[in-house]
């Protein structure tokens, strides 16, 4: 089950909801919201695409896939019938504020889900030998819809057999496999019943926006609030992360410094059974959708919320206690910029000091632009302390940094160049604006690496591309970054609906793609991303990740280069020499060879997209994987034992401390955790497994990508002392 955080996470959609919709809630008229969304997309989107019959077909396809993303419940016959009825007219319906087609399509889906789960319950009563030669698709999204009910029945027989086989491999199972799988589909039916009209409208309008490009999006009230929380890295609430489990909102994590954690009255594992505002009566939250519970718990600073809690150690759900909390501002410090100082013993007896700054995102408090949270302000503070510590080189780690504020990306570039153009932005009319850094001289001018992977996107790519074009930093990591070269703006719909009669966020907001950005060298990062100067093996470096893997991406193109003063910023980077030195180390590094082997296997599984239903064959595969994981764990431990570096933590709260804390060595890395998990879940989607195992920020010093990046930086420092040639 995915987590939904009161702190930060966006509300996740369920799968279905009821055929009979409740009366509309007070607030924004959903029909007017639909009209406004349609008009803004037609008039404001970069493509200027009209809601014509062609776009109607695309919207329908997107909506159907958002409802049934694994193509399991609709059949091709259903899709053909729905397309015949609505395929060319959805655009007109949107502009008329007519949401009835979305409801009617959903009604078909609801019936298909109910009928299918009734059949699944019968399949779970059967015995399976698990000796067949059949296979199932790993990722159904790549497969066509089943042609008809008969083909769907066959598909589901194999799928249920596969799920039961999966549970048979679970070493920690408490209940029989049939009971576990049955409970999974009971939860699905529950989500069907819970979904209301507001949810459907949001899902449909989001499908409309996504049909224009993958980054345009309709956000309802709750999603809009979550977006704003993410950008300012703070919230007003109790500071607890919740997830849905067995009908309850269960505490997954308590955020440090939040009211829940500071009170000492709540623990991880507590279940919330009811919520009350101040002295108001309690509202029962059992079986309530998680985002609704989250909405009830959030509130204004200084206000009181009361919770009925079933303690984590209680086996009797009737035993409850009341916890009263005063809502307060909670800082999301885990998403802030943070730094490290790495000391490395050199052969000549000296100590090399290297700085490492990790950026999870380019955040900015839009409401308090001068005093609120800001990536660039935080990095300035970290950089000043790093320079005080006399670092000789710097790594900016942007792995898994999905972007954020364009303004912050520009300010960040300005910390490392002496003024000049940073990025070019083109609007739908073809007008180009060159955005520049005008702050003056660079704050840091020493040797520098920007570390990226396929999940570095948007503002991350602007930053990396600018420093690469100026010759200011070496780009290291996956073969390229994500490839998101578009700019979005957030439009609160209430501003376009003067008759709303309530707060502007009642109608939600439209995140709209309005521009494309281009490097100062003229090329776009759209689809292509930023190409690394030095490529390192990585599990995320495959076709499953990146803009090109998304639906309806905008095309790549170029504009004229912007004149820049390279001479004032350029540092010798010795790319060819560094690339060769790195390749020599990588080829002799057992951990990198493990990564190469894993990457090859992942790519093979992605290509084949099949999973065997034969137990003996699967056990052989699992044994082979276990052997490989054991080798990887041994290689990891060996690398850790041979490591001679010392790492000191530098968070924003440590800036003025005279002595920095020596970081403890992290021995339980994602790779070792994955080794344990894979023995339980051998059929994880390989792309999702890559996300879990990827060399993400915060891993131990035995992370091979981190270790090699530091080695490359050391080489760059060494070569810069006595340059033999100048250039990239």
Description of the structure:
The structure is a single chain. By secondary structure, the chain is of the alpha+beta class. The chain has 20 helices and 24 strands. The protein has an eight-stranded mixed beta sheet with strand order 21-18-17-14-13-12-23-24, sandwiched between helices. Strands 1, 5, 6, 7, 8, 9 and 10 form a seven-stranded antiparallel beta sheet that branches. Strands 3, 15, 16, 19 and 20 form a five-stranded antiparallel beta sheet that branches. The longest helix has 28 residues, at about 615-640.
Number of domains: 3
> Which term fits the overall shape?
globular
| Major sheet size, sense and barrel closure | 8 strands, mixed
- CATH fold-type name of the largest domain: 2-enoyl-CoA Hydratase, Chain A, domain 1
* CATH structural architecture of the largest domain: Alpha-Beta Complex
Q: Hey, roughly how much beta strand do the residues contain? A: 15-25%
Number of helices: 20
Instruction: Report the C-alpha radius of gyration, rounded.
Output: 27 Å
Q: What class do helices, strands and sheet pairing give?
A: alpha+beta
Give descriptors for this structure.
single chain; 728 residues; alpha+beta; Pdz3 Domain; 2-enoyl-CoA Hydratase, Chain A, domain 1; 3 domains; eight-stranded mixed sheet; seven-stranded antiparallel sheet; 38% helix; globular
Give a nutshell description of this structure:
With 728 residues, this protein is of the alpha+beta class. It has 3 domains: 9-212, no CATH class; 234-331, PDZ domain (Pdz3 Domain); 334-721, 2-enoyl-CoA Hydratase, Chain A, domain 1.
């Amino acid at each position: 089950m995915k987590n939904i955080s009161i702190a930060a996470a966006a509300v996740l959609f369920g799968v279905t909801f009821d055929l009979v919709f409740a009366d509309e809630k007070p607030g924004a008229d959903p029909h007017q919201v639909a009209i406004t969304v349609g008009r803004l997309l037609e008039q404001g989107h970069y493509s200027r695409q009209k809601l014509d019959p062609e776009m109607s077909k695309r919207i329908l396809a997107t909506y159907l896939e958002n409802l049934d993303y694994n193509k399991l419940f609709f059949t091709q016959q259903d899709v053909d019938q729905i397309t015949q009825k609505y395929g060319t007219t959805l655009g007109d319906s949107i502009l008329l504020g007519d949401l009835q087609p979305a409801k009617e399509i959903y009604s078909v889906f609801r019936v298909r889900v109910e009928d299918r789960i009734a059949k699944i319950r019968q399949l779970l009563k059967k015995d399976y030998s698990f000796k067949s030669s059949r296979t199932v698709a790993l990722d159904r999204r790549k497969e066509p819809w089943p042609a008809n009910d008969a083909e769907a029945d066959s598909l589901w027989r194999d799928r249920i057999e596969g799920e039961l086989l999966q549970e048979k491999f679970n070493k920690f199972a408490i209940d029989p496999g049939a009971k576990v799988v049955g409970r999974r589909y009971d939860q699905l039916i529950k989500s069907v019943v819970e979904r209301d009209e507001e949810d459907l409208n949001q899902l449909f309008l989001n499908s409309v926006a996504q049909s224009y490009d993958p980054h345009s999006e309709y956000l309802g009230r709750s999603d809009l609030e979550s977006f704003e929380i993410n950008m300012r890295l703070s919230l007003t609430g109790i500071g607890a992360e919740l997830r849905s489990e067995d009908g309850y909102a269960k505490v997954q994590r308590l955020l440090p410094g939040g009211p829940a954690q500071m009170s000492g009255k709540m623990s991880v594992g507590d279940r919330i059974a009811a919520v009350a505002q101040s002295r108001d009566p309690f509202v029962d939250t059992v079986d309530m959708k998680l985002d609704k519970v989250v909405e009830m718990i959030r509130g204004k600073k200084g206000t009181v919320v009361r919770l009925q809690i079933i303690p984590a150690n209680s086996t009797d759900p009737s035993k409850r206690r009341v916890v009263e909390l005063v809502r307060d501002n909670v800082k999301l410090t885990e998403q802030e910029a943070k730094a490290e100082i790495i000391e490395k013993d050199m052969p000549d007896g000296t100590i090399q000091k290297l700085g490492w700054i990790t950026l999870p995102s380019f955040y900015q408090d839009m409401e308090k632009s001068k005093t609120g949270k800001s990536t660039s302000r935080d990095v300035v503070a970290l950089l000043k302390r790093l320079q005080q510590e006399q670092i000789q080189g710097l790594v900016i780690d942007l792995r898994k940094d999905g972007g954020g504020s364009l303004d912050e990306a520009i300010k960040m570039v300005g910390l490392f160049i002496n003024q000049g153009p940073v990025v070019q932005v083109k609007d739908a009319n073809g007008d180009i604006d060159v955005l520049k850094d005008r702050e003056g001289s660079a704050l840091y001018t020493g040797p520098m690496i920007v570390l990226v992977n396929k999940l570095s996107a948007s503002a991350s790519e602007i930053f990396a591309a600018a420093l690469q074009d100026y010759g200011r930093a070496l780009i290291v990591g996956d073969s390229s970054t994500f490839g998101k070269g578009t700019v979005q703006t957030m439009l609160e719909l209430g501003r376009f609906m003067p008759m709303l009669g309530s707060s502007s966020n009642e109608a939600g907001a439209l995140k709209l793609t309005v521009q494309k950005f281009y490097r100062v060298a003229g090329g776009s990062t759209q689809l292509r991303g930023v190409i690394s100067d030095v490529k390192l093996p990585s599990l995320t470096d495959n076709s499953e990740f990146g803009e090109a893997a998304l639906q309806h991406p905008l095309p790549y193109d170029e504009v004229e280069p912007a004149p820049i003063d390279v001479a004032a910023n350029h540092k010798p980077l010795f790319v060819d020499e560094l690339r060769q030195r790195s390749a020599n180390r990588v080829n002799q590094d057992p951990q990198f060879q493990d990564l190469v082997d894993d990457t090859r296997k992942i790519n093979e599984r992605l290509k084949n997209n099949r999973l065997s239903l034969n137990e003996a064959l699967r056990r052989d595969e699992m044994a082979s994987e276990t052997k490989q994981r054991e080798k990887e764990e041994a290689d990891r431990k060996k690398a850790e034992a041979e490591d001679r570096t010392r790492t000191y933590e530098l968070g924003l709260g440590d800036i003025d401390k005279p002595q920095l804390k020596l970081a403890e060595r992290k021995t339980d890395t994602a790779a070792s955790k994955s080794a344990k998990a894979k023995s339980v879940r051998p059929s994880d989607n390989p792309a999702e497994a890559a996300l879990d195992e990827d060399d993400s920020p915060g891993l131990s010093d035995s992370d091979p990508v981190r270790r090699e990046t530091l080695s490359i930086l050391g080489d760059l420092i060494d070569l810069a002392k006595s340059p033999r040639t100048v250039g990239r």
